[in-house]
Amino acid sequence: MATTSETNAGSNLQVDFVVQYSFGDVDQPKAIEQLQKLLQTLAGVGLQTEVRQGDEASLLIFVRASKNQLKRAVYRSRVRDWLYGIRHAEPEPADAIDPDNETEAERLRVIEHMITLPTHEGGAGITPQHGEWKNVMAVFPLHDQETNGQWMREWSQKTFLSEDDLDQIRNKFGESVGFYFSFLQAYFRFLIFPAVFGFGCWFLLGGYSIIYAIVNSLWCIIFVEYWKRQEVDLRCRWQTKGVSAVQTKRRQFKPEKEVRDESTGEVRGVFPATKRMQRQLLQIPFALLAATALGVIIATCFAIEIFIAELYNGPLKSYLVFIPTILVSALVPTMSAVLVSIATKLNDYENHETNDAYDVALTQKVFVINFMTSYLPVFLTAFVYVPFASRIVPYLDVFRLTVRPFVSKEHSNAKRSNFQIDPARLRNQVIYFTVTAQIVGLAMETVVPYIKQHAFRKYKAYNKKRNGKAEGNGEKDSPERPLHVVFDDPAEEVKFLTRVRNEVELPEYEVTDDLREMCIQFGYLALFSPVWPLVPCSFFANNWVELRSDFFKICNEFRRPTPLRSDTIGPWLDTLGFLSWTGSITSAALVYMFSGNAQQGPNGEPTDIKGWALLLSIFFSEHLYLAIQYVVQVSMIKLEPTNARKERAERYLMRKRYLESTLSAQNDDETPANAFEVPGLSRAALEEEARQSTLQETDPAERFWMRQQGWKESAQVGTGIIQAQTSGTTKKQQ
Amino acid sequence: MATTSETNAGSNLQVDFVVQYSFGDVDQPKAIEQLQKLLQTLAGVGLQTEVRQGDEASLLIFVRASKNQLKRAVYRSRVRDWLYGIRHAEPEPADAIDPDNETEAERLRVIEHMITLPTHEGGAGITPQHGEWKNVMAVFPLHDQETNGQWMREWSQKTFLSEDDLDQIRNKFGESVGFYFSFLQAYFRFLIFPAVFGFGCWFLLGGYSIIYAIVNSLWCIIFVEYWKRQEVDLRCRWQTKGVSAVQTKRRQFKPEKEVRDESTGEVRGVFPATKRMQRQLLQIPFALLAATALGVIIATCFAIEIFIAELYNGPLKSYLVFIPTILVSALVPTMSAVLVSIATKLNDYENHETNDAYDVALTQKVFVINFMTSYLPVFLTAFVYVPFASRIVPYLDVFRLTVRPFVSKEHSNAKRSNFQIDPARLRNQVIYFTVTAQIVGLAMETVVPYIKQHAFRKYKAYNKKRNGKAEGNGEKDSPERPLHVVFDDPAEEVKFLTRVRNEVELPEYEVTDDLREMCIQFGYLALFSPVWPLVPCSFFANNWVELRSDFFKICNEFRRPTPLRSDTIGPWLDTLGFLSWTGSITSAALVYMFSGNAQQGPNGEPTDIKGWALLLSIFFSEHLYLAIQYVVQVSMIKLEPTNARKERAERYLMRKRYLESTLSAQNDDETPANAFEVPGLSRAALEEEARQSTLQETDPAERFWMRQQGWKESAQVGTGIIQAQTSGTTKKQQ
């Protein structure tokens, strides 16, 4: 197992895709038969294969597309795009395509389609982990370690990624990941302004400044609308406009009935939209359930926390203060996991037809959970604790019953009357969520998995060694899978195959998780940043790291994602809009309630909050927000993005060329100017005669049109009338 | 001038268009030269012409397209549509087009394009009332009197127009008018439900019923969203999807600079969008000005009215009560006209590039004026008069100063303390606007112009006769235009030409005015119908007549409109949405303020209106509205309209055919299944040898891919590994 001959382990040896074939849980003859079928099918669509050993119960099938087959597949894919209106120009013929000139993303996408598309669409019809091919565990490309490393080094030395860098990401990982990084980059660059402005406001005006709140809301509107426009731009630059039209069906989709489409003659499974909508009504109880379950947990822990921190004064206080934190950390993720699994079941039940629709629906459901876990604690502090604490806190005596043994009665009574709302609590909470939690999150998603992964590999290697020694001792802890795999690799491939085996074990990357993280972050900015105007500064610093660490994560902690095309960041765009809108409400409320620090009551609560004034400021703020949003939207539409203009120009050119050719073709064969003119005098005389005769006979319309022949006669008649009329006038005037 | 020979005056004698050429205000030789040029130009694009006398100072040029030229123009127009993505299938060649099979709307539109399009786009470049062609006063088609009359008779006997009827309207008058009638029909049909439900509510619950308000809001949401979907459907049925892409430039557009487009090489006038936006900022002061000017007038008249009706008790009261009505009737239309002319100037100043953009911008500005004049009086009654009257009314003593001579002091004092808010005022006002004003409006727009028109014709005929007698008396009241026109018409054309001369004098039809009327009507329903639930009944009856009278109006009181294509009712769609949204606010406020009739104070005003409760109900109502609207929108999107599905099926078929042909072409020339297989044994042996040798030499990737040749070898290797592994396991298990 030692490395011997020297080959470049970073190179992928021209491997396009790796297919992991598992034979652990089927009979040997069946496994062999299925393997043969798999290889034959792959060869059938023009893919070259090499088989190597995977782990104990799987094979690695390396796949490479032959140049000719690839050319054709690329051509076919482009024709399809053209027919669906994604490409504007008819694609050049297959022979003119040089696969080496195409982007890696297109190459990989096309090959993945060759492997997975159904046979009637020209693919091999291999469906990993599903149906006939359930032994095919995974189909994925290999990381390009050299380029990845190089990019990491380059990016760590600059502040902003260039357009070119983003294009490179898209070329390597596909448009879906490209859109995420573009969004992150746009968001990061946009954060400069609120970071600087927020710092100024914090320095000069402190928290709850109305100026900061207005500017922040405006910034949110402009950013969201800017990003919508940017999506249009990227869509044109990356030629993915309308790409969602070419959607492949979800394999799990269960049609209710087979319907033969009358016009196309195609038989296809149909699930009525109305029935799906009825099922979707379950979302309402689900949202209520999620809100209640999480709300109860969070509110209870919150109440315990307040009780311990501000009322309880018994023994062990310094330890007890950790109880609510521990409870929240334990209960909220558990409940979230339960709710997410319910949401997934609900989503499955809704039986969506395409993967996109499925993802959008799931995102919406999960967003309810995210919203509760992320923002509810701050909402509770701002809109329940601060205004109502003095009324609610006495009821917290419920907890006192449980701790009665530890508290002396007098002590507690004394404390109660002294109860003071902690005015800094809200700010501290916002700081916790926007600084501490962000850093912890970064560590949890990047550093921890990396350490875990390495530890796991070490453990595996150690275990293997130990088992190698202990072999024959009759250990039965995993009877199906012997732990002593002797890899019979060619010496020069050892490094390469080790790397591939490691990549196989990595999980699949989901760009939606990263997008969610960013949207939730944006939410803190939109909803609560007036509390502490340094929030955007924190996010600005955080996102510089985030961009790099996410890239690092994709390269090292996940299998390389198959390039997916996309023309948007999807449902998250709506989420951004929703959060920004809600921000206009919370900002107004926060500023109204907390900006006049002087008018605090004896317990630290703001005394003169008037219901109608609060609601009126919310009403104005919200409608002002909506009006400005409308204006910004309308203005943005009128500023056409560069690439959209370019695309329009291209289409215009194509049209012009075509129109010119049809026009010239027509002008050649007739000179219409003379179409109604009489060619010669003699003939004119003849026709005049004929006309006079027909005037008597034919129908009125013919007679009408026969009176003047050619424009010259019309002109004569007209001249006559003009002369008659004007001379009449002149005569009269004289 | 008497009618002699009998021809059918209703028939149009195959005339496609009439061009009115005026020669009244130019020199005779110039007029003749220009006429010749006009006729030559028309002939140049293949149009046949006949000239007849118009009135004293104009000619009528009758235009007919030759069959061949029309074929070509239709083909060219369809090619353009195809290139812009409006048609899906490539149009059949020009020779295959039978112009008689096409709709009249297409025929007329194409001929109009032949006349008016610039020469480089294949038209004659005639621009009525503009530049070189300023003597061309009008270009319009003739009414098809026979069909119009027949339709009027048919429609007066049925309740609903069928889809076919709407298609007929579209075929005759173009999509723009077709969309209006479809909208009116959809709105009319949708009114059944609120009419029935409203009647029930009125009977059982009276006004201000929360149930009615909720149902009404829901109905508004559903109607607006239904109509959006219906637009998609109509757009597919009438093939006008994306028709706004083919827009002709406004002639009045003044480019700031000429820019040569780098990619297309086309030089075109450009006006920067940012500069236009700056100019559009003037809309804000304009809106404020309009609101203030109209607001002051309406509020003042309102105050005077209250003063006279409820405070004043002096002499002449029965006459004085009419003063405010007279003032409103005089001042509001005057001010509106002034404001509209300002809006038009502003709009001109904004320098829009296309006619569509111009119309949209103007509609938005005029809507502010309409909103004020239509709804402000009711707003004032509901939200100022009723809640605040007892506080405001004393200030109305200002008016008392002016009438002091007539009122005895004691009398007025006694009256003041007795002041009672008239609780029925709001209801009466709503009834006035939704019943009386509708009927008056109908009469004003249909009956009055009809009578005026006939009276004017009679007057003209009378005048002509009188002048004929008085000729030579040296009357100089209109020296430029002699009133004694002797029409030298061929006897059989007299009737026809008389009709044409009448049509020339009619104004141009603007579909946007009719749409505005309907939207304003919808506004009363959305905003105020909870006051008096019979509103939808009134509108239902009104709109049955409206649909017929509008058609009558188009046929008899306007020139036949040139068919315009359109894929929407335009900016009015947004207006509907806006009104429906505002309705959710006003309904909540009205129901909260007035539903508890029992709790009225001594002066008749509701006593316990609490600011926070009012605002809270508005807040909930509005957000509930928006949430439901979102759900309805999402659901509607999922229900695909019939014609959209058909269209999709057609495109699918086209794609499938094309893809199949490319696929089969490829399969012919290669059988990829054997691409990597070794054809014969002997050759295999040879290659094996070659492979072994290359394994030593070439680069690692080549060596990697050389190890297994063809899928069969891969299968063998894989089988070997599986056997080794599984037998190992089996051994161990034993």
UniProtKB/TrEMBL annotation, chains A, B:
Mark out the compositionally biased spans (Polar residues): 722-734
* Membrane topology annotation: Multi-pass membrane protein
Q: Where in the cell is it found?
A: Membrane
Organism expressing this protein natively: Penicillium frequentans
| Residue ranges constituting the Anoctamin transmembrane domain according to the UniProt record | 169-650
Q: Which InterPro entries match?
A: Anoctamin, Anoctamin_N_fung, Anoctamin_TM
One cellular component GO annotation, for this chain's record?
membrane
- The entry's protein name is Acyl-CoA N-acyltransferase
* Family annotation (Pfam families): Anoctamin, Anoctamin_N
Q: Per the database record, which ranges form the Anoctamin alpha-beta plait domain? A: 14-136
Q: Which UniProt keywords apply?
A: Membrane, Transmembrane, Transmembrane helix
Listed GO molecular functions?
A: chloride channel activity
Assign the protein's first listed, main location to one coarse class.
membrane
Q: Where is this region: Disordered?
A: 714-734
Q: Which residues cross the membrane?
A: 186-205, 211-227, 286-309, 321-346, 367-388, 430-451, 569-592, 612-632
